[in-house]
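The following block was generated as part of the benchmark described in Methods. Ligand: histidyl-adenosine monophosphate.
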Amino acid sequence: MWSGLKQTDIVVQAIMAENVRSVRGMNDRLPEEMASFQAIAEHCRKVFSRRNYKELQTPVVESTPLFSRGIGEATDIVEKEMYTFPDRKGRSLTLRPEMTASCARAYIQHGIFKSRPFSEWFYIAPMFRYERMQTGRYRQFWQAGVEVFGDRAPTLDAEVASVLYEVFSGLGVTDLTMLVNSVGDKEDRVIYREKLLQYLTPFSSQLCGDCQRRINTNPLRVLDCKVPSCKEIAAAAPALADSLRDESKQYFHDTCNALQVVGVPYKIDKQCVRGLDYYTGPVFELVSTSKALGKQTTLGAGGRYDGLVQQLGGPSTPAVGFALGMERAMLVSDMIAAETAPSLFIATLGTAAKVHGLALASKLADTNVSVSVEHRDVKLKAQLRRAAKNGFTWALVLGDNEIESGKANLKNLDTKQETEIELARLADNLNR
Ligand code: HAM
C-alpha cells in the first residue's frame, strides 16, 4: 500500500490527517522543553521534601461522583469542564480535573485517617479540564500541589501558603503577591447565603443562564462566574469576609499575621472566592504581573477545606493545601534547565567497532556520562557531523586499529582539543 510513496510523503500525509494530531489544548512537550519542566519539577520536589511532605500518585481516571460531590455540582469545573465518559459497563468515569478530591479519597480508602491521621502529601501530575484555551490555560496541564490532612491551625495555613510562595521565589520570580481571603465555614455560609440572595434576586434577569440556576442551587458560585455581566453584578455584592462569625474572623486574622511574620507579601482580596465548593476558611491565590502569563495571572492557589474528607465518607478531618500550574511556572521562570550530563559519542568504523563501542558504553554505566554509539555504516565525517549537531561533549573514534592498539583519539567537541587515550582508562579521561 505504501509502495511508490517516498518516506517524506508518508510523514506529511500522516501529519495532515486530522486523527493523528494531538487533541486541542493537549500539547506535546518535546525534549528541549522537558529540561525546563524537569528542572521545575525537581525544584518543587526539593521545596516540598524540605518540609517532610511525601509524594503520592493516584489514577488519572476516577469515578465521576468523586468530583461532582467533592468539587461541587454547581461549579464551572463540574458543570462545564470535565472530560466524562462511560466505561464499557456504563459506569461514569472522569479524567481528573484536580487532585484534592483524589487525595481525600485515597486518605479515606487506605485508612490513612487511622494509621497516619496527620499526613503531608505532595504530587506532580497531569490534570484535564475542557477550558477555553489561551496562554497559560490548557486542556491537559500539570499541577504540583500539596495536601496536609489532620491539623487545623492558622500557622499551618500560613505554612502551606508560604511553601507556594517559596516555590516561586526560589524560581527567581520577583513580582509576587499572595491574595488572601476567607470564605468561611458552613455556618458562616448559611448566614452569607441569605445576604447574597437578597442582593442577587433583583438582578436575576440580568444574570447568565447558568447563574440564574445557581441562584437557587449555590448562589456563591455566581461570584466567580466569568461572564462579564455577572462579573459586574458580583463586584458590588456584599463580601463574604464581612459576614464571618468572630471565630472565623480571628482564624483568618491569625493566618494573615503568620504570613506577615514569615515574610510573604499578601493582600486581602474580598473578591477571591475560588471556584471550588470545598473550601471552608482562609483561601489564597499567588499572582504575578509577568507579561509572559498573558491573562492567566494566577500561578497557584489553595486554601483550607475541613469538610471534604467527611463529605466523601470519611471521618471529620481538617485539611489544607494548594496546587500550582507547572506550565505557568515554566512561563514565568527563567530557571535554566538543569545542567545536562556530559555526553560521549562513539564514532565507529566497522562492525567490530560497533560491538566494542557497546561494551565501552556498558563500562561507563556507573559514571554520569551519557553515551551514544554510532550504528550506521556512514563516513566518519557524517558521524562527527551528527555528534556536533546533537551537542555531545566528546567524540571518540573507534576502528580496527584502535581496538588492536587499545588506544583511541578522544575529541572534546567544545574546545576541539584532541587527545590520545587508553581505552581501558576512558572513564578517567571523561572529567570536564
Ligand atoms: P485551581 O485554582 O483550580 O485549584 O488550580 C490551581 C492552579 O492550577 C491554578 O492556579 C493554575 O496555576 C493551574 N491551572 C488550573 N487550570 C489550569 C489550566 N486549564 N491550564 C493551566 N494551568 C491551570 C485547584 O486545582 C485546587 N485543587 C487547589 C488546592 C489544593 N486547594 C487545596 N488543595
